[in-house]
Write a structure and sequence with these properties.
mainly alpha; single chain; 84 residues
């Protein structure tokens, strides 16, 4: 079962075993994905700025955004495990 199919089944409450876990992980998935995307916008702002040093800050922000994308992946995994 894919993530989108699991989300659609969870919203309609089909075969849902753990509704509290499902909805909290769905909120976490959305939050962590948006934070990761906003951090990539931060990388864009660093690259187009007039600062002389761009590599170190942009690598730091990329690493920090990968943490949030990893947390979003874990939330997606937990969403898929909430079904029979």
């Amino acid at each position: 079962m894919g993530l989108i199919e699991a989300i659609l089944m969870g919203i309609t409450f089909e075969k849902l075993q753990k509704p509290l876990v499902f909805f909290s992980m769905l909120i976490g998935l959305l939050f962590f994905t948006f934070v990761g995307l906003f951090l990539w916008y931060g990388i864009y702002e660093i690259v187009v700025s007039d600062r002389p040093e761009k590599l170190i800050p942009s690598l730091g922000v990329a690493l920090f955004s990968s943490v949030f994308f990893g947390l979003a992946y874990v939330c997606g995994y937990m969403i898929k495990r909430c079904f029979n």
